[in-house]
Design a protein that fits this description.
By secondary structure, the protein is α+β, with helices and mostly antiparallel strands. The chain has a single domain, classed as Thrombin, subunit H (Beta Barrel). The chain is built from 2 helices and 7 strands; from the N terminus they run H-E-E-E-E-E-E-E-H. It has a 6-stranded antiparallel β-barrel. The longest helix is centred in the last third of the chain and has 28 residues.
Length: about 130
């Protein structure tokens, strides 16, 4: 889902290094802007450069509406971008279920946005048919 399609404001989060070689790390947090979001990954942009390596586990903290998310995972791709000096990254994650015992609230929002997106596709198709 493209964040801009569903929210008036950009979705920002904070990224930090959680583990390196299975050792817990306390690192500085970096602000990132989330551009797309799916059930297993997201695309974010940052002015910083991050490596692709399985030895580093990152954490991204986000808040969507009133739901706080703490996502642990890996940077799995660096994407070529036209964002000037910013870099685009694909981040594959799992939700920390111990801090979020129920994902039903998030799933309900996701379902609502998917329905809204489907409705907009149908409306666009109808408008195109009327124009022809």
């Amino acid at each position: 889902m493209h964040i801009a399609d569903f929210y008036e404001d950009p979705l920002y989060g904070q990224l930090d290094i959680h583990q390196v070689n299975e050792q817990l790390i306390e690192s500085k947090k970096s602000n990132v802007q989330v551009l797309t979001f799916s059930s297993s990954s997201l695309i974010f942009t940052s002015d910083l450069k991050f490596p692709i390596t399985e030895s580093v586990v990152y954490r991204i903290c986000l808040q969507i509406n009133q739901t706080k998310l703490e996502l642990f995972g890996y940077i799995t791709a660096i994407i070529q971008s036209d964002y000037g000096s910013s870099n685009l990254y694909e981040y594959t994650y799992i939700v920390n279920k111990s801090k979020h015992p129920s994902n039903s609230h998030l799933l309900a929002y996701r379902q609502m946005y998917l329905e809204k997106y489907q409705l907009s596709l149908e409306m666009n198709h109808t408008v195109k048919e009327l124009d022809t």
